[in-house]
Each structure stands twice: as structure tokens, then as C-alpha cells.
Amino acid sequence: MSFDAVGDVWRLPDFDNHLRSIVSPGWARAVCLHHTAAPSLAQRPDGLSKQHIRNIRDFYQKKGWQSGPHFFIDDTEGCVMGMTPLHEKGVHASTFNSSAFGIEVLGDYDREDPLSGRGLKCWENAAAATRSLLDFLGLPATPATVLFHRDDPKTTKTCPGTKVKKDWFIDLVKAA
Question: Hey, how many other C-beta atoms are within 10 angstroms of the C-beta on 75?
């Protein structure tokens, strides 16, 4: 496990090309969505930068983690920022680490609005990236393949936020 994808950034069309250039790992059977909570959209008015991702990596390393989520998504032009390489299992939701790619979406969706403005753009970008990952795995978008952190029976978290509804997000993935 590693943070070897920190610094990798793709626009969504380039992300599809990247996925076509690598072999799908046999362990992944789903995508698990999270929200960063902190930082929130208000705390990152210009989205995420490579330095922000390095800072998050450093925070995870101080916690003793050997890897983190696979990707971070914000509202900037379909940007996908890497953290953990796809051939490696990440750390993001204990029950799902061994079977799902992890995506962190910028924002605090217990408080911020996912249905309009920057919040909606973040979730549209996350839906497009999720669609790409599911296509990469040869899987349809269903409640079994699109997981939320709060679906993990080992947590009491609301992640990816109480304002994000799974059926709404799956519809976004299908439309992406």
C-alpha cells in the first residue's frame, strides 16, 4: 500500500484514457464515496490543489495509514486527483477497503448543498469518475457497486453527508 498516486491529476477524458491503459485489479468490485467534510467547499473556494493532497497525505501518514482513498474530486473542470494507485487497496472505509475504490468529494454535505452550485458540480464530477471506474471494472451502477461510507456496518458516520441521497447519486452516475 502506498501514496504513490499523489500528484497525479487527470481531467475526466484523460482519466478514461488512463483507465484504458492499465489492467483492472481483481480485488475491486465497487466504488465507495466519501466527503472531505474538512476541508469544506467554503474552506477551499478555489478547489483542491496538489499541495492540499500532499497535506492530506501527510495527515494520514501521521495517523499511521499506509495509503488513503484512491481519488479526490472537486468542482474544477472535471478534475480527478490521485492518492493511492488503483492496483493497491486503499484506506477509506474499513469494511470496503478490500473491495472498493475510495473517492473523496470536496465538501461538507451534512451542511453544504450538493444539489446546486459548487456542491452539485463536485457531485457531477464524482458521478462521471464513478461511471468511468465502474466501466473500467465492467460493472453497472447499483446500490451494491456504488457504496457510501455510511453503508459500512462498522461506522456511525453520515459520510458522504446526510444531504447526499444514494438513489439521486446513482441516477447521476447512470446519466454521466
Answer: 24
User: From residue 111, how far is each of 103, 115, 121, 151 by CA, in Å?
Assistant: 19, 12, 16, 19
Q: Which domain holds residue 32?
A: 9-175
> Considering its fold, how many domains does the chain have in total?
1
Handedness of CA 16, 126, 86, 61 (dihedral sign): positive
Model confidence band, residue 13 (pLDDT cutoffs 50, 70, 90): confident
pTM over 0.90: yes
Cell 461511471, residue located: 131
- C-alpha 98/C-alpha 141 separation (Å) is 19
Query: What sections of 7-161 are H helices per DSSP?
Result: 12-20, 50-62, 117-137
CATH code, 33:
3.40.80.10
pLDDT recorded at residue 78: 66
Structure confidence by residue, pLDDT tens digits, 121-130? 999 999 999 9
Q: Cell numbers at residue 42, please? A: 467554503
Residue 158 placed within a domain: yes
